[in-house]
Design a protein that fits this description.
The mean pLDDT is about 85. The protein has one domain (about 20-110). Strands 1-2 form a two-stranded antiparallel sheet. It has helices spanning about 1-20, 20-30, 40, 75-80, 95-110; strands at about 50-55, 60-65. The protein is built from 5 helices and 2 strands. The structure holds heme C (HEC).
């Protein structure tokens, strides 16, 4: 009986532990979708940031990741599904649900 009770408690605790909210899931995705987190370039809240500064023909140049907080879902989805060659942004292979979660996260974190 005791053993049954103990394992029941463990099962409950474990279940509690492995449960994550949609927000937590989305945050996880945003910070590490297939390795390279969006946050590395777009900042922790998607407000954009400067990725690198360099000189080209003595001119100072900046590589910036844009603010993605007010992009509409269609643009957002298209961007994450396009395979443009000359883009500084990596190509991801995400499902529609993952893209939705990312979109949700950026909206939520800027509320
Ligand atoms: C290595 C840096 C880098 C990473 C990582 C990155 N991006 Fe980007 N992103 C950029 C740059 C630079 C641009 C602008 C140039 C372009 O469109 O390719 C951009 C453009 C975008 C745009 C288009 C914005 C607009 O106004 O049209 C969206 C949406 C976007 N990124 C979302 C994401 C999401 C979501 C992730 C994570 C899955 C991500 N990016 C990861 C660098 C990055």
């Amino acid at each position: 009986m005791r053993i049954v009770l103990i394992s029941l408690v463990f099962t409950l605790l474990y279940a509690e532990d492995s449960f994550i909210t949609p927000f937590e899931y989305a945050k996880m995705l945003y910070e590490s979708p297939r390795g390279v987190g969006c946050n590395l370039c777009h900042g922790s809240k998607g407000r954009g940031k400067t990725i690198a500064r360099y000189k080209k023909r003595k001119e100072l140049k900046e590589l910036k990741a844009p603010d993605i907080t007010s992009v509409d879902f269609k643009t957002f989805y298209k961007k994450l599904n396009s395979r443009k060659k000359r883009s500084a942004m990596p190509t991801y292979f995400l499902t529609r649900d993952e893209i939705k979660a990312l979109y949700f996260y950026i909206k939520k974190v800027n509320e």
